[in-house]
Design a protein that fits this description.
This protein is an alpha/beta fold. It has 2 domains: about 30 residues; about 130 residues, 3-Layer(aba) Sandwich (Glutaredoxin). The protein has 5 helices and 6 strands, in the order αβαβαβαββαβ. The chain has a 6-stranded mixed sheet with strand order 3-2-1-4-5-6. Strand 5, helix 5 and strand 6 form a beta-alpha-beta unit. Helix 2 packs parallel to helix 5. It is globular.
Length: about 200
């Protein structure tokens, strides 16, 4: 094979490689920016919930799947949020657990990371009962209720799936708890895996 022919084939191969990489990156970004199903959260705190809200300050809850890789970014953002406004919040993270899961199934690195955040209490949500009560469908779903038990925020606190960083959700919650906003309710997209995902590892 002569040199010009080899160069031509290498050029074609290089162009195909660039196209494949570009296509793969486009698919990855499309996935990262695709939100999960939004919660149909009750306008007031559900009376039947086993989680007790604070009557003195806002209560924030996050519903999470212990094996969702996207939720790592949500936990990181929760850490930043608590560092900024944690003294004005009662905060619980509920990890959905299958009813037949073995003991300690939910105690993943996500559980440990959430439990290590000052001011955060972590619970297991067996069979997703609490997630159902709060209408949550996607891991990383955050809900904020004021001291009167009224819903003020519903959504996510990451800018994209699996990505931490400045985002509208965290900013909205800070504004609400610091009294900088009088809006009745904020909603943002939530990025994460389905809370109904039955993965076991």
């Amino acid at each position: 094979m002569d040199l010009p022919h080899r160069r031509f084939l290498r050029g074609i191969a290089g162009a195909l490689w660039v196209m494949a990489v570009g296509s793969g990156m486009t698919m990855l970004w499309a996935y990262a920016e695709a939100p999960g199903a939004a919660a149909s959260a009750p306008a007031v705190w559900p009376r039947e919930s086993r989680i007790r809200p604070s009557a003195e300050r806002a209560t924030l809850i996050m519903l999470a799947h212990p094996y969702c890789p996207c939720t790592r970014a949500s936990i990181e953002e929760l850490d930043r949020l608590m560092a900024r406004a944690g003294d004005r919040l009662t905060t619980d993270v509920l990890f959905v657990t299958p009813p037949d899961a073995s003991g300690g199934w939910e105690a993943t690195d996500l559980w440990r990371s959430a439990a290590a955040i000052p001011g955060v209490t972590v619970f297991d949500d067996v069979d997703g009962i609490e997630a159902h009560r709060f209408g949550a469908l996607t891991s990383g779903q955050v809900l904020l209720y004021d001291a009167a038990g009224r819903l003020r925020f519903s959504g996510g606190i990451t800018p994209a799936r699996g990505h931490a960083g400045d985002n509208a959700g965290r900013s909205a919650i800070v504004a609400l708890v610091e009294g900088a906003s009088s809006a009745s309710n904020f909603e943002t997209p939530v990025f994460g895996c389905s809370l109904l995902d039955d993965r076991r590892s």
